[in-house]
Amino acid sequence: MFQGIFHRIYRGLRGAWLPFLVAFALTGAMGQAVADTGRGDKSASARTGNKSVAKSVEASAQEFDRYFRQLLKQQGIPGAAYVIVDRDKVVAMDTYGVRMKGKHQKVTTHTVFRLASVSKTFASSMAAVLEHEHKFNWGDKVVRYVPQLSFKTPALSMQLQVQHLLSHSSGLTPNAYDNYLEDNRPLSKILPKFASIDPHCAPGKCYGYQNVLFSLIEDVIQKATGVPYGRQLKERFFTPLKMEDASLGWESFMAASNRAAPHVQTGKGWRPVKVEKEYYLAAPAAGVNASISDMAQWLKAQMGYYPDVLSHEVINDLTTERVETRRHLRHRIWRDYIDHAGYGLGWRLYTVGDDRIVFHGGWVAGFRAAIAYSEKRKVGIVILMNAESRVISDLTGNFIADITGNGKLVQAIAAASKK
Predict the structure, then answer these.
(1) b/e map of 164-197 (b: 16 or more CB within 10 Å)?
(2) Which end of the chain has the lower number of beta carbons within 10 A, N or C?
(3) Looking at residue 15, what is its pLDDT?
(4) Positive or negative, the Cα torsion across 386, 7, 27, 113?
């Protein structure tokens, strides 16, 4: 989900045909130095044979921490957290600032943030687990589970498959009817609107980012298993991974005593605002809440270190490209070294030399989030912020450039010092 500036500008717009594509934004955060002592194999290059990565992950983590604090201080960010994971080990986890500007409660490793569109990684993972258990098939028609969905040309809606929901390859214009979500309209009131539009390409053939359609996976899961989506997340992911702070939905977020407040930029700096319900109405797309401690576990699971929760077969399915996303090759942070960009199931996939970066970002009113890992080197990062700042793009992108040997954090630190 890339609501942010785009949806603020177009909050008053009604209808599905948005005038331009939403700009993609990265996200990032790092955390508390929880050093892994006594580890013999420190170097990514020692494991991969890539001579361009000459230093240890721990060294990159130390440099990242300097960069993280430097940028957040420069931008006046109220609060944030990050974690860096090397295979199944937390190399660094730390926090910055306060939960709410003007208050004294500090962000801790158990402070709960909204994950925004990083929630999509949970929905797609849950769906993949169930698909591999033969509860449904990726090729199933969506109308089998959501019969009330119809396009202007009804025959086209019959072509829409479950996998198209999670790969944003429905063929519809990007972010169709997100403005209705921002008006706090439930999905049941939004679905009839799709009867007035048609895809501009056949389902599965082109990319167009969606929140409303993506969230229909909740109906698929409920009808295929008889178990509500929220319960599935808790029983299949949160509990076995010991994600003790994680939850789904607005009510759960507001019930958390240690939660971050959202902040938006004003002429007088960052200002705390109320927690909006809007995108919580599309729970699979944007409804998960979690702490940085939780996200360390989630990152390890996605990199394959909890195979009882996410098997290697499921992870391979999630990270198999379904559609190309060429416009992401132009992103200012990544454009110098990404060779190819695509989307799998709930994950962005960027080819970088001999490696691939598995990534997703999130942006919703007052929050930013990012998760990324190197598929080959098994090094990843998660950043959570309680402010709508683009600085998360620089943090995430430059860390990935550093650990893949395509850039140096020390240069990013030096460049930031001149601003």
Answers:
(1) bbbbbbbbbbbbbbbbbbbeebebeebbebbeeb
(2) C
(3) 37
(4) positive
